[in-house]
Amino acid sequence: MRKRCKERFMIITDRIAGSSLRAHGAVVQYTENAAARPGKHESATRTLIAAKLAALKGYEFAGDYDPARRYTGPLYFVPNDTLIGFELAQKANIRDHHDLFGGVVPYPFAATKTITHPLVSRDAFAPEGWSHEFARNVQGVVLFGFSAFTPADLRRAATRVLERGRARVKPARGIGGRGQTVISSIAEMDAHLDTIDPAELALYGAVIEQNFDQIETYSVGQTYVADLLATYYGRQLLTKDNQGANVYGGSDLIFVRGDYDDLLSLELPPKARLAIKSARTYEAAASRAFAGWLASRRNYDVARVVGDDGRRSCGVLEQSWRIGGASAAEIAALEAFRADPSLRSMRAACIELYGEQPAPPDAVVHFQGVDDRVGPITKYSQVKAYDNSRQGDRDRG
């Protein structure tokens, strides 16, 4: 089975690459930090997405970027992470969204979830480039919490959050809910502080938020490739990994051709409209606060939560200005819009299944096998039927 899946993957990527051999540019993968290379399933998904991006742009797929190679024509980069600082972008001639799938930010923390919350006080340590203005501008569209860059400030923030109940500590660069810790007391916070690398904390920070057991997470975002702009919202799915922990299991998304206003023209339930409004406010604040901010791929996790007191609230958890978990569904949507110019809206999903589980017959399999980090996993994307007239009723539950 694994051999057949590998052969199928190679046929797909070869066919995509071969269709653009006469192209006037090249799509290249770029790994900024060689020490943080992805696992097998992430690498396979990223390669397939990069090959599909080449086809969408009419470029050649040229594999990993080689700075010693002389490329003919413009390059389109698919980085493994948000690019930090503008020196690389300038060297690579990355000027706007036509030059990469992902984003560029000026400071390390700006690529992480730590920009979401304010510091615990005005005298708390703030890294270079920190924007108090951004925290003020998003205060109404995020959950209660703080960001911190020193153990002392993280402990002070924990004291404030614990006044409302349990708290959730999130590493700045954690993905898919991994590495998060729920604490109930300062003693538990002190024990957790012993596990945190001070150098990592000083560079990227950490987040501590009020913990919620009842949480529904939306994905809201945009993807801009060549002349195609797709905007979407939908739900994130949870699944059990091979150790039995609750982790990200994919996204089921509704796409429109066009901008946020085109998305809002659909028949959407109030909670979806609130999630979209929150994401737009967050994005606008980021573009004002961080000079030179650039992103062709934008994804925002927006949580709808119920507190221990029964109160409901909604807030942006974090941003993703890089290739991410929902990117396979985004590419499927762009391919559908390219294939049918009359198509205005559609539905696509990307799914992650742990253990030995097969993908549906009509799915595009990105990886099926044993990953070196997470064990057996199947990843696929799938275009689904979509009826806008029934969407409002379907989402009101």
Key attributes of the depicted protein:
397 residues, alpha+beta, eight-stranded antiparallel beta sheet, four-stranded antiparallel beta sheet, 31% strand, disordered C terminus
Brief digest:
By secondary structure, the chain is of the alpha+beta class.
Could you give the topology of this structure?
Layout: H1 2-18, E1 26-30, H2 40-57, E2 60-64, E3 75-79, E4 83-84, H3 87-91, E5 103-105, H4 132-137, E6 145-148, H5 151-162, E7 167-171, E8 181-183, H6 186-193, H7 198-204, E9 206-210, E10 214-225, E11 228-240, E12 246-257, H8 260-264, H9 270-289, E13 294-295, E14 297-306, E15 312-320, H10 327-339, E16 345-354, E17 364-371, E18 375-384, H11 388-394
Helix pairs in contact: 1-2, 2-10, 5-6
